[in-house]
């Protein structure tokens, strides 16, 4: 299974749409969003209608928490976890959140194979014991190039993608 990890999309509709077309064309089955969607309508009007797989997301520091929860409640393939989420996908334990300090604490528990976070807008991959700690960067392209990550559960490969090169 291929999982796309995005963060900090900040309502950049052209980037989000380009990513979603790429995801559909590249057999992405799951999207993890590490926060800062900003406007909850992005989930309702852009992500959910354009992607039929599962979408898991957490709050960032830029969002209307109550409205995002209300919007996500009505969409069957979208799950909002609050500030921190965790999944077990094909025996791979994944945690995700928005803030790097929280992600580091999750990674240090050694309870997960992968921990993803956002907030800094800087792509990052680091190994902490058996856990890979990673930031996919900013899909919104704020302060740096627009990026995202893809994890393949079959090959156990985590790859950073630059949006303008796809």
Give an overview of the whole structure.
Belongs to the metallophosphoesterase superfamily. YfcE family. This is Phosphoesterase. It comes from Candidatus Buchananbacteria bacterium CG10_big_fil_rev_8_21_14_0_10_33_19. Its EC number is 3.1.4.-. Keywords: Metal-binding. This protein is α/β, with parallel strands linked by helices and 166 residues long. The protein has one domain: 4-Layer Sandwich (Purple Acid Phosphatase, chain A, domain 2), CATH 3.60.21. It contains 4 helices and 11 strands. It has a 6-stranded mixed sheet with strand order 4-3-2-1-10-11. It has a 5-stranded mixed sheet with strand order 5-6-7-9-8, covered by helices on one side. Strand 5 and strand 6 form a beta hairpin. The chain is globular and about 40 Å long. The mean pLDDT is 96.
Task: Describe, in short, the structure shown.
The protein is of the alpha/beta class and 166 residues long. The chain is 25% helix and 33% strand.
Question: What's the topology here?
Answer:
Layout: E1 2-6, H1 13-25, E2 28-33, H2 41-50, E3 54-57, H3 65-73, E4 78-80, E5 84-89, E6 92-97, H4 100-108, E7 114-116, E8 124-128, E9 131-135, E10 147-152, E11 157-162
Parallel strand pairs: 1-2, 2-3, 3-4, 6-7, 7-9
Antiparallel strand pairs: 1-10, 5-6, 8-9, 10-11
Helix pairs in contact: 1-2
Question: Which tags fit this structure?
Answer:
166 residues; six-stranded mixed sheet; alpha/beta; 4 helices; single chain; Purple Acid Phosphatase, chain A, domain 2
């Amino acid at each position: 299974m291929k999982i796309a990890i995005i963060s900090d999309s900040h309502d950049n509709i052209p980037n989000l749409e380009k990513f979603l077309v790429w995801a559909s064309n590249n057999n992405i089955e799951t999207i993890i969003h590490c926060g800062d969607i900003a406007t909850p309508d992005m989930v309702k009007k852009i992500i959910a209608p354009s992607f039929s797989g599962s979408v898991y997301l957490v709050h960032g520091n830029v969002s209307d928490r109550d409205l995002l929860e209300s919007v996500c409640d009505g969409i069957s393939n979208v799950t909002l976890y609050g500030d921190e989420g965790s999944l077990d996908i094909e025996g791979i334990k994944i945690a995700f959140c928005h803030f790097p300090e929280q992600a580091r604490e999750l990674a240090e528990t050694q309870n997960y194979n992968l921990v993803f976070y956002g907030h800094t807008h800087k792509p990052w991959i680091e190994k902490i014991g058996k856990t890979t700690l990673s930031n996919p960067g900013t899909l919104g392209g704020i302060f740096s190039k627009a990026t995202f990550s893809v994890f393949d559960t079959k090959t156990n490969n985590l790859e950073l993608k630059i949006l303008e090169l796809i």
